[in-house]
Amino acid sequence: MVKRKSLKGDYCPSARSLDAIGDWWSLLIVRDAFDGLTRFGEFQKSLGIAKNILSARLRTLIEKGILETAPAPGGAHQEYHLTEKGRALFPVMVALRHWGERYLFAPDEKRSVLVDRRSGQRVSRLEIRTEEGHLVDPDEAVIIKVPETAES
Total domain count for the chain? Predict the structure, then answer.
């Protein structure tokens, strides 16, 4: 198997973010953590993932500071909880969800729905805005790249 190239030192924030997340299993673990799952067995049951793969992904998410462990109340087991860094992935998860709802489901197809816990209202679509509040679409945004002569 070819070893995956690390993007840890890349100048692109998207590349570094993907390097930290690792793969789609990791994002599904984060999704389940947002949904309140905390135990190894809960993640395994929800995802249908092999124990060795789940263990490796949990370990990586802990190493990257996205999850942390804590003793489970009244038991010898441990629980997994999102850190502040992990909780900051919420807009990413919502953006993926909204994209999937828009492009991967038929209009009348059943799907889970993201709602506000207090009001029960659906969460509105994310919008990208400037610091002053102007709505920005992809044609209006540009990435200012680090000059190629820059050294790390």
Answer: 1
Tell me how crowded residue 106 is: count the other CB atoms within 10 A of its CB. 7
pLDDT digits (tens), the chain, 152 positions = 556 677 666 777 887 888 888 788 999 999 999 999 999 999 999 999 999 999 999 999 999 999 999 998 887 889 999 999 999 999 999 999 999 999 999 989 999 999 999 999 999 999 999 999 999 999 999 999 888 765 54
pTM reported for the whole predicted model:
0.84
Which residues, at least 6 apart from 125, have a Cβ–Cβ distance to it below 8 Å?
A: 98
Q: Which domain holds residue 47?
A: 13-140
